[in-house]
DNA sequence: TTGTATGCGTTATCAG
DNA sequence: CTGATAACGCATACAA
């Protein structure tokens, strides 16, 4: 009875607050706050009493209140094209792991390659007063840029790298990846090299890769050859590319660079079924190094993006900006990552 | 000068607040709050003025403050074994999509199949006063259960289903999946059927599947045959299982059920290299239906878990509990999902 | 090292 | 339909 009769507050979660702990420990509430944030500044005697009170009351700090009071919550928002895609998940995973090791939480949203959805996500995230924000790529709406600029917090663009951008960038040059693939095939002696694009609208990075390919072709005195599938799903699009480019009677493609491994994989399956010898009759190069790529027959030659590294390094840069860890030198160079061309059987 | 000379607050983000909007619109701040939360309760005239003020001030609601005042933030925490895994990502994606359509944000953490890491994540999440919490599976630490119980918010366990659990469950019975695989192979006439486990510690669900398999074997008067790989990576473990079980001289396995498709895939590759005819010499069944499974040679017969559906339905149940959408009937039955056995070439 | 007063931006309560 | 006031739980500024 008596313990229940304590005048209950009109609102509130009913959970113990920092004041309850302070009262139980016989200290000021600010000391409890320090006990969590700057333990070194609290004497051993008080620390002990506070620890006991915390335990007996099952105290859990209210992070929202803390964030409100300190104007920035220990939260970082991340907008990624899609969570369940074969590659971005690794970035999310490593990013989240590094952050949570330092007491920051990940707030996640997906844009499905739509800059408008990205804008909506950024807008919502800012409502949480996040400590930092991560977006994918360098293509955003005007309003997103405006929001990012006025937010006055660290912003990182991942999965791309362009010189002289305003925000921190952690990624690689898609343009150079396109060049890399084209050079590789040219060196192998292929001439009739096509580039099969993605039917997903909004994947601007794939366009950059295509342009890198095109420029290398022109340098070599060859005409770039673009194929834009009309099929909706990657599976159908890859098949369509294979049928259109490699199975034509005259002037068939000797090699095809695909916008990603999904397309390339379905092309290999289609080719296999049609009895096309790969790479002799048609060489295939992908992008992404998805899990299945090494298991195909022929195994897929592809370019591996540093997905996990991107997440890790982005998190580190943010923690540096936030003063959580000492700053690295030569950040500029560290942020520009390299992709690896994995030479397998298909090219 | 004059516009800058407005006495600046000592603290704060510098962003416009609800009071700024109220002043600009000539209304009380609570009316602005209502304008966002219950637009129907605000007259058209005031709504117009508020809308203008919001726009001109670039007002963005501070969600942390709102969450603090209303004791529950529009946030839902989700703990998942791993984000970058081949199947959970789909659950995350669909869960996040449904939630964000209703103005809830996803706070994500991974446990790596460790109940201790799960506990830590739950603890942190609770600090945000989330509207609801989602965990994976039914195995938790005592402290986690305690936290979940006292949190007094909707809790959903995903990726599993056991009768008479305390929390809402959205998933399927791993035990029945194990039974399903065993029955399928027995029906095909296989007798010497082994189960290759996962070397990842903490994957309790895989144990449930194994037990389902074992019981069906016993029912059929056959001895269950467990193989526990020592190899660390799934790739090596699958290969090891194949070599140990199917390539032995005498009494080799006629069929192997693998704890997941990663193991099964590497087994198929190893078998292929060793010239083992599948399924004639050894049939293979996986679990998960990962992206590469249909691309293998032979394509992998596997059991597809309803990953996307789990995320969707979990989100719906939460939104129902929160009163955001009308409640469904027969929730009990709806939450028990079925896995589909995909009959392909390997078994 | 510790404590007091006050503000963070919003919503619940209650009154018009 | 609208508004004044007081929480929400914590951290900053400043003082002791």
Please, could you describe this protein's structure?
- Two copies of one chain form a homodimer.
- The first copy, chain A, is elongated and about 90 Å long.
- With 347 residues, chain A is α/β, with parallel strands linked by helices.
- The model of chain A is unreliable at 1-9 (pLDDT under 50).
- In chain A, strand 1 (75-80), helix 5 and strand 2 (105-110) form a beta-alpha-beta unit.
- The first copy, chain A, has three domains: 3-61, Orthogonal Bundle (434 Repressor (Amino-terminal Domain)); 72-172 and 307-339, Rossmann fold, CATH 3.40.50.2300; 174-304, 3-Layer(aba) Sandwich (Rossmann fold).
- In chain A, 43% of the residues lie in helices and 12% in strands.
- Chain A has a five-stranded parallel β-sheet, sandwiched between helices.
- The interface between A and B is large, with 52 and 51 residues.
- Strand 2 (105-110) of chain A pairs antiparallel with strand 2 (105-110) of chain B.
- The structure holds a DNA duplex (16 and 16 nucleotides).
Task: Give the number of DSSP strands of chain A.
Answer: 11
Mean pLDDT across all amino acids of chain A: 91
In the CATH scheme, the class of the largest domain in chain A would be: Alpha Beta
- What is the topology, as strand order, of the major beta sheet of chain A? 2-1-3-4-5
Distance between the termini of chain A: 79 Å
CATH architect. name of the largest domain in chain A: 3-Layer(aba) Sandwich
Oligomeric status of the shown chains?
homodimer
Strand percentage of chain A: 5-15%
Integer tally of domains of chain A? 3
Largest interface, Cβ cutoff 8 Å? A-B, 52 and 51 residues
CATH superfamily of the largest domain in chain A: Response regulator
Rg of chain A from C-alpha positions?
26 Å
- Helix/strand-derived category of chain A reads alpha/beta
């Amino acid at each position: 009875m008596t313990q229940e009769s304590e005048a209950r507050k009109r609102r509130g979660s009913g959970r113990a607050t920092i004041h309850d702990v302070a009262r139980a420990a016989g200290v000021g509430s600010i000391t409890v706050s320090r006990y969590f944030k700057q333990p070194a500044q609290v004497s051993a005697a008080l620390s002990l009493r506070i620890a006991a009170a915390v335990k007996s009351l099952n105290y859990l700090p209210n992070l929202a209140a803390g964030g409100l009071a300190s104007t920035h919550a220990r939260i970082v928002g991340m907008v990624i094209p899609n969570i369940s895609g074969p590659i971005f998940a690794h970035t999310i995973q490593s990013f989240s792991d590094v952050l949570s090791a330092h007491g920051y939480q990940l707030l996640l949203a997906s844009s499905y390659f739509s800059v408008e959805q990205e804008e909506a996500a950024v807008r919502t995230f800012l409502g949480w007063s996040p400590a930092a924000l991560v977006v994918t790529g360098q293509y955003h709406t005007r309003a997103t840029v405006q929001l990012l600029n006025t937010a006055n917090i660290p912003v990182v663009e991942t999965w791309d790298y362009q010189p002289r951008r305003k925000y921190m960038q952690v990624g690689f040059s898609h343009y150079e990846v396109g060049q890399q693939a084209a050079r590789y095939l040219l060196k192998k002696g292929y001439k009739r090299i096509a580039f099969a694009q993605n039917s997903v609208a909004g994947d601007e990075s794939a366009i950059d890769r295509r342009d890198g390919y095109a420029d290398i072709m022109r340098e070599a005195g060859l005409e770039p050859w673009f194929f834009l599938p009309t099929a909706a799903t990657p599976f159908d699009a890859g098949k369509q590319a294979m049928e259109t480019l490699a199975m034509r009677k005259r002037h068939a493609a000797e090699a095809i660079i695909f916008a990603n491994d999904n397309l390339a994989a379905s092309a290999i399956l289609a080719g296999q079924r049609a009895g096309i010898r790969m790479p002799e009759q048609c060489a295939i190069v992908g992008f992404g190094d998805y899990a299945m790529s090494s298991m195909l027959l022929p195994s897929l030659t592809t370019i591996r993006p540093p997905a996990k590294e991107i997440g890790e390094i982005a998190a580190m840069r943010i923690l540096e900006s936030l003063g959580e860890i000492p700053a690295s030198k030569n950040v500029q160079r560290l942020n520009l990552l390299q992709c690896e061309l994995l030479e397998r059987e298909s090219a």
